[in-house]
Please model this.
Amino acid sequence: MLNALTISELGKKLAAREVSAREATQACLDRIQQVDGRVRAFVSYDARDALAQAAAADQRLAAGERGPLLGVPLGIKDVISVKGQPLRCGSKILGQFVSPYDATVIQKLRAAGAVVFGRLNMDEFAMGSSTENSAFQTTGNPWDTSRIPGGSSGGSAAAVAADECVAALGSDTGGSIRQPAALCGCVGLKPSYGRVSRFGLVAFASSLDQIGSFTKQVRDAATMLEALSGVDPCDSTSVPQPVPHYATSLSGEVKGLRLGLAKEYMVGGLNPEVRLAMDAAVNQLVKLGAELVEISLPHTDYAVATYYIIATAEASANLARFDGIRYGARVEGADPTELYSKTRGAGFGPEVKRRILLGTYVLSSGYYDAYYIRAQKVRTLIRADFLKAFEKVDAIITPTSPTPAFKIGEKADDPLQMYLMDIFTISANLAGICGISVPCGFTPSPRLPIGLQLLGKPFGEETILRVAHAYEQATAWHKEKPPLS
Ligand code: GLN
Model:
């Protein structure tokens, strides 16, 4: 089953010309036919276009070109522009919109010869932790399709876990790569802010958003990061730092590395099975030679509140462009004001409306200083907590999500419960640092994946990849497959 291989396994076969990109792409398309009726990860895909890209990759391979992503089929979250493909961000408001250009990450993947195909389901405008806020469908967790896959990049996580593609792109504003990766049992990497260009990513909260990958193994996360990273003249927040050859950092060694455990993260709401898995993972890393250091991140308690002020404020500004005038769905009105309100009233779902209202409120005159400015100050303190901790440690270990995947519908009526799902992931976005989630165990019954999160310094991806890889190689969690026949 070529679709079940990792990027590095498939890449070897393609390079040796044992298999073709066309066969690999067809295997993914067949798998979608077989399981996506239950998983519902894809909102759409264009099989003809995928096979045409694969044929072009085969020609490049035949001409002697080689590269780690040449001919590898990758799924794309429905928030990243792919020229000629629908772009709907899990929302009705974009109507039948088709992207007129490729995002920078897509240009890079095309240059590397990857087959970029499919639109993967997500919470509307990436707002959510369960994919239940998609206007189209709720994705099922491949380990138990009556449960959520996490979110907002739930389609990306589920598609990779169900072997419907070899790897996928997602975006992470407060945990949307790491949390679904944990809940579906794959590897999710959120790069440091500025590492990867956001050009062509539909903005949710521009100071927090980053594009990253879902993969089946840590080595593939290194390969993807190298392909995606780099400064981009189209994104002024991308940073001109050299792009390392990330795969060479995967030495398998953690001896002498100092790993921080934050006392504030061992909170009451942590599910006991997640706690057990996390403790076992920590022991494993100690056995491998890492040194544990207790650290303090004193402003942790304020992270969720700070995030929901800053992210909603930025979202309210970013989503103002969806007004029915220039593109997307339109509901006519007697005058422009009525047209805007009818279009936005019909086009946005309840969670997006809630966030726009919250964000508009915290930015409004009279409340701006009390909420928005204060949240920015707390954000600075949260970043300072991390920078201080990183003077003592090389990486920080936490659970990725406080609980395993819950049942579809279980938290849908309780936004606050849903917001608390982000408690361990949100701070990394506020601080601009990098994070990765790797599989670290399962709940016994039902059998659901658990993820371990490693947080690293700004532009410290090599260190977290190294620790994640060493841990992965010492365990077998990543080899397990969901019970989908
Ligand atoms: N779950 C968080 C939210 O709802 C994070 C989403 C994200 O990272 N895009 O905002």
About this structure: Residues 126-129, 152, 172-176, 204, 311, 422 surround glutamine (CB under 6 Å). The radius of gyration is 21 Å.
